[in-house]
Amino acid sequence: MEAEKKEIEIKLRSSQACIREGYQLYTGNFRKIFRATWWAAIVFAVITAVAQGMPVLISPTLLVPALVLGVVAVVAWFVAAKWRLRKQQVLKPIALRGGIWMRHFGKLTLVSMVCLFIVAILTLLTSLPAVILITANWQSQIGMLNGDASGMPDNVKWLSLGAFAIAGFIQAYVWLTMVLPLYLAKISISVQDKEKEDFNKKTI
């Protein structure tokens, strides 16, 4: 409860501190984040369920459109979630001058890569039931092409879509773990740039 009331400090942080404190803030404020974004997470879950179901339940030739739809869903989820978090004042606007990103490219890349690695591991763990269903559906379709019986229950499509949607809802909040570490990195860059600007003014 204490962590949920704690304000995000505007201060300089290392890349490691951005990652560590970002995840701590995410877990400490999860209830507030969930209340602000649950409806967008449901929309994301439905879209990802459709994307996963296209090549599995309809035709393997739809794999590329499904991947495109999945990428669009992730981007739209980030946009919607960040908008809601700003509206609920979980995240406050941080203004950065143009071109400053390139000077801190290494820090942003490090934070992003570590967060993506964590997301990949968590996504793998949370999507195991969906992966099992995908494998079972593909094996059934291959068997049917060879003249074998389906061997899958009649309601397998709805069970699969339900599993994909549940996995997608969980993965929405797995993806969202990237937001606060990158937000703290943005704060750190802003503070560092301001300190540098103030120092230059004093030395002139």
Tell me what you see in this structure:
The relative contact order is 0.19. The protein has 9 helices and no strands. The protein is an all-alpha fold. Helix 2 crosses helix 9 and helix 6 runs antiparallel to helix 8. The chain is elongated. The termini are far apart.
Quick tags:
204 residues, 79% helix, 9 helices, disordered N terminus, mainly alpha, 0% strand, single chain
Approximate helicity band: over 70%
Radius of gyration, in angstroms, nearest whole number? 21 Å
Number of helices: 9
What's the total number of strands? 0
How is the biggest beta sheet arranged?
A: none
Helices and strands: which structural class?
mainly alpha
**H and E order:** HHHHHHHHH
Instruction: Measure the end-to-end span.
Output: 47 Å
Oligomer: single chain
Which regions contain 5 or more consecutive residues with pLDDT less than 50? 1-5
Shape: elongated
- Strand percentage lies at under 5%
Indicate the mean pLDDT.
Answer: 80
